[in-house]
Design the sequence.
């Protein structure tokens, strides 16, 4: 269980205060207006932003004092996930050992995960030789290989076209069957994840406004509440 | 404008090519006894060897200082960091002859270092002439420039990569290998080529600090052939060889500079994950201290002129100042108008006549001007007009032309993109309203062009104002510019006067460069 209690962050022009819970093994979609604090929430969990107060625990362990590299989380950004001078295999290998000195066993597990994301035989390709969707698959593969129980996806598919986006969410859903992971994913278009996510969280103005099953968030009176919240921001 | 007349840009291109060709044909056919290439072979070989060695070492040292300084500044935040960054950009505008003064003031026979050593009781003497002085001046001018360029490139690394580096737990070595090194590797060939070319073409620094006939570059050798020996045949050979080498180097440079487009930047300052490493802290500390010890005295020596600035005001100085400003203004006018004509020709071929290949020729022409060594070109033109004018009037004609030609690439760079933008935005509207020719320039283009034009003009003036190049050939009783006056004072070791004149030149050049920068940024 990921538990966030009253985590406060302040900047001159923006402040946030997050409280939410995500059960282990959940695929949790985070929606909300842009500039509302979705990315900040993920960056805080990953350790790039430090809250001034509040608690952040994962499976009972306080992870706030940990450096990003020591946290149980792997992160995938919307763009620039791969180093352009390294090929797909090397980019994935970074999450096993940043020195890139990997054993044969590790190499074959990278090949396995490349196959799982539909990129069999792409190991030697550099990011410049792949499409945007393929690059994001490599980034997902790296998050999978890292063995970290928490996977944070920050608008990972926003720059892809709708059909491809749908496939990618399906792929993310499949990842959960390969090993028990908790996935937090910010998305632009809630429909993409409506039927696959177990939990949907609405973030606006630096706060978690609502957290429930997707059907409850996207339909009924809650939708009006959210619309009201959006118009206030 | 009648449709029968060729475009002004075509005329300008033709005129430039004719001028350059005329200069070299005049050189090739110059009368008098013509030495063979073989007869000047040993002399040429000595100069070439020296030029290549000094340019190689200047390049290596400038890059070493630039890389270390860029990395240290990328990793560290300290009070005054912004001032240091501003200082780094300014060394680009310091005229070479002023840099020569700085080297004299700090490392010269009666400079600061000599003073300190004698205060400590050391009686020996050392000479800065030859390699030491030349290398110090070249590294002083180019090292900070390299640092500034590299620092800007290092800042282009996407924020996501820095977050990944800390999420994946990169060590400082791995950060260097995966984040910094790919950026440096992409920039270094171009920078190395540029610095090498600048040092290979170096004139004022080598002339003043070379300290011997065999320790000269081809530019200095051409100057000596023309001014001292009046040996036009030798000047011709040297000019052709210089031209061939510089064109080759520029060609290689263009080839090295085609690099993949960089990723866009993400807002916000990123905390680098390697700032906590103890050994890196120590290393960066040492780099910053050494750089400061090297750059600061040279930069500060320019301020030493403050105390003497009231004593240099005399007729000569005022005359030199007026001459310099007039030449600089003429050069800037030539550069901006010719660049505008070329850029509008390029635009016409690209957008209206849909011939990108001819447009590319117009884009390429300004860059080739960078490769043409001024002394080689001047040598030919001087031979042409020496029958009609005495040296000082010849200088008054040639200085604005040569300085103007040298500034065209810079003016072109700020004018051409703006012209393309206005065409894309308003080209169709103007065409449907029938606005063409000069009317189009006045109504459609000029409002958007004013700022870049002003910026280019100020920069061209700054470059020409501080230039100590072919004025060395024409300067004398009747024609004195401020840089020439500074050179004369340095030659006779009048360091107090030199310091004040140097400060004066730098102040004006900075002012012009500042105006240029303001005009180019504020427009966005």
Sequence:
């Amino acid at each position: 269980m990921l538990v966030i209690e009253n985590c406060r962050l302040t900047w001159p022009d923006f402040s946030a205060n997050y409280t939410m819970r995500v059960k282990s093994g959940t695929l949790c979609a985070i929606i909300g207006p842009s500039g509302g604090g979705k990315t900040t929430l993920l960056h805080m969990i990953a350790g790039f932003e430090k809250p001034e107060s509040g608690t952040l625990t994962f499976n009972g362990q306080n992870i706030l004092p940990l450096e990003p590299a020591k946290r149980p989380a792997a992160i995938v950004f919307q763009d620039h996930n791969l180093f352009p001078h390294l090929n797909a295999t090397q980019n994935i290998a970074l999450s096993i050992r940043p020195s890139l000195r990997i054993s044969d066993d590790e190499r074959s597990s990278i090949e396995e995960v490349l196959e799982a994301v539909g990129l069999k035989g792409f190991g030697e390709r550099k990011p410049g030789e792949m499409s945007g969707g393929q690059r994001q698959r490599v980034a997902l593969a790296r998050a999978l290989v890292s063995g970290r129980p928490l996977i944070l996806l920050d608008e990972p598919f926003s720059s892809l076209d709708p059909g491809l986006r749908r496939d990618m969410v399906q792929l993310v859903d499949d990842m959960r069957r390969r090993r028990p992971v908790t996935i937090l994913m910010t998305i632009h278009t809630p429909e993409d994840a409506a039927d696959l996510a177990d939990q949907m969280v609405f973030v606006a103005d630096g706060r978690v406004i609502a957290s429930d099953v997707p059907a409850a968030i996207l339909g009924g009176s809650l939708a009006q509440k959210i619309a009201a919240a959006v118009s206030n921001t | 404008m009648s449709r029968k007349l060729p475009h002004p840009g075509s005329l300008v291109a033709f005129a430039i090519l004719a001028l350059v060709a005329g200069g070299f044909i005049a050189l090739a056919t110059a009368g008098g006894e013509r030495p063979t290439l073989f007869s000047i072979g040993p002399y040429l070989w000595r100069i070439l060897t020296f030029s290549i060695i000094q340019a190689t070492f200047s390049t290596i040292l400038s890059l070493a200082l630039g890389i270390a300084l860029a990395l240290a500044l990328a990793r560290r935040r300290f009070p005054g960091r912004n001032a240091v960054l501003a200082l780094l950009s300014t060394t680009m505008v310091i005229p070479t002859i002023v840099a020569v003064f700085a080297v004299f003031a700090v490392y010269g026979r009666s400079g600061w270092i000599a003073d300190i050593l004698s205060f400590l009781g050391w009686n020996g003497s050392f000479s800065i002439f030859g390699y030491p002085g030349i290398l110090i001046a070249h590294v002083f001018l180019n090292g900070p420039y390299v640092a500034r360029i590299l620092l800007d490139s290092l800042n282009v690394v996407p924020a996501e990569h820095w977050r990944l580096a800390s999420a994946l737990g990169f060590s400082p070595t791995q950060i260097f290998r995966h984040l910094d090194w790919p950026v440096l590797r992409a920039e270094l060939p171009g920078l190395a080529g540029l610095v090498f070319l600048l040092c290979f073409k170096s004139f004022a620094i080598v002339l003043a600090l070379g300290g011997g006939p065999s320790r000269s570059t081809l530019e200095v050798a051409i100057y000596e052939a023309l001014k001292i020996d009046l040996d036009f045949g030798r000047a011709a050979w040297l000019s052709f060889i210089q031209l061939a080498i510089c064109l080759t180097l520029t060609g290689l440079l263009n080839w090295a500079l085609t690099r993949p487009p960089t990723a866009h930047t993400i807002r916000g300052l990123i905390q680098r994950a390697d700032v906590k490493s103890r050994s890196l802290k120590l290393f960066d500390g040492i780099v910053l201290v050494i750089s400061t010890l090297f750059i600061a005295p040279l930069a500060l020596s320019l301020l030493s002129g403050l105390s003497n600035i009231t004593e240099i005001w005399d007729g000569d100085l005022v005359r030199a100042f007026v001459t310099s400003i007039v030449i600089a203004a003429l050069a800037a006018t030539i550069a901006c108008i010719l660049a505008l004509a070329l850029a509008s020709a390029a635009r016409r071929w690209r957008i209206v006549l849909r011939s990108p290949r001819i447009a590319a020729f117009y884009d390429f022409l300004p860059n080739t001007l960078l490769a043409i060594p001024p002394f080689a070109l001047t040598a030919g033109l001087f031979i042409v007009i020496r029958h009609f004018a005495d040296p000082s009037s010849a200088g008054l004609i040639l200085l604005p032309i040569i300085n103007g030609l040298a500034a065209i690439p810079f003016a072109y760079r700020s004018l051409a993109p703006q012209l393309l933008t206005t065409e894309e935005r308003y080209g169709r509207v103007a065409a449907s309203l029938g606005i063409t020719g000069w009317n189009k320039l006045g109504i459609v283009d000029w409002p958007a062009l004013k700022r870049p034009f002003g910026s280019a003009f100020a920069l061209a003036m700054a470059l020409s104002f501080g230039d100590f190049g072919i004025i060395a050939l024409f300067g004398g009783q009747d024609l004195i510019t401020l840089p020439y006056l500074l050179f004369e004072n340095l030659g006779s070791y009048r360091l107090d006067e030199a310091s004040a004149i140097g400060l004066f030149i730098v102040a004006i050049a900075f002012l012009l460069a500042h105006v240029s920068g303001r005009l180019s940024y504020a427009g966005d």
